[in-house]
Design brief:
Blueprint: H1 2-12, E1 35-37, E2 40-48, E3 54-61, E4 71-78, H2 84-98, E5 106-111, E6 117-126, E7 134-147, E8 150-163, H3 166-186
Length: 201
């Protein structure tokens, strides 16, 4: 349980752990892309195996960079059993805590009828000293898998940013919320197969 908590502190306290894209990106989970979502194609831009059981891949629209992206998809796959309620609770609490300093931080939780999936969607904002302020809308889809005796866990997350006046941006994203969340809920997750690659340092 301690190890699980440490993993989620690293993975979930922040919104998404964005890093610079790398060249010749390795496909670690048999999801090479491109991925089409709501008319946009997302291409594999970064991947990493942070631990023995965690594999991550991020996808961006063509010609976008992580430093100023407008949309991003992230697959965080745990090749082990994870307590879904714990993962959801920690994510919700992280956004609630952020709300103490970010007045735009709002979070909602939805559960699938069979209880095997949860959706956490939320707004956050940033007003950096350098660069344009932005509103970001995120949808996190938490899903458990069970293949025979093997259990695994996926967090599929989507982020969309608007760089502009924060008040007008949050209104604009608010109008898109239902459609963006539906896109992630209805997205057919491909079969994930972990690649036999050495642990990244």
């Amino acid at each position: 349980m301690v190890m699980v908590k440490k993993i989620f502190i690293l993975l979930l306290i922040a919104t998404l752990s964005f890093v610079k894209a790398q060249e010749n990106v390795a496909d670690l989970i048999s999801v090479p892309g491109p991925i089409e979502l709501n008319g946009t194609e997302f291409f594999l831009s970064w991947s990493k195996q942070p631990s023995k059981t965690l594999y991550r891949q991020q996808f961006l629209p063509r010609d976008e960079q992580i430093e100023n992206f407008t949309q991003l998809l992230d697959f965080s796959f745990f090749n082990k059993e994870i307590e879904i309620e714990l993962a959801v609770r920690q994510k919700v609490e992280s956004i609630q805590n952020r709300g103490e300093k970010d007045k735009f931080a709002k979070v909602n939780v939805s559960e699938s009828p069979d209880g095997k999936e949860y959706i956490v969607d939320f707004f956050i904002s940033e007003a950096p000293a350098k660069g344009d302020p932005y509103i970001e809308y995120n949808v996190y889809r938490f899903k458990q898998f069970e293949t025979g005796s093997q259990k695994s866990f996926l967090i599929l997350s989507y982020a969309k940013r608007i760089y502009s006046d924060l008040k007008s941006s949050v209104k604009s994203l608010g109008k898109e919320r239902d459609q963006l969340m539906t896109n992630i809920i209805e997205y057919k997750i491909p079969e994930i197969k972990v690649a036999a690659l050495p642990l990244a340092k």
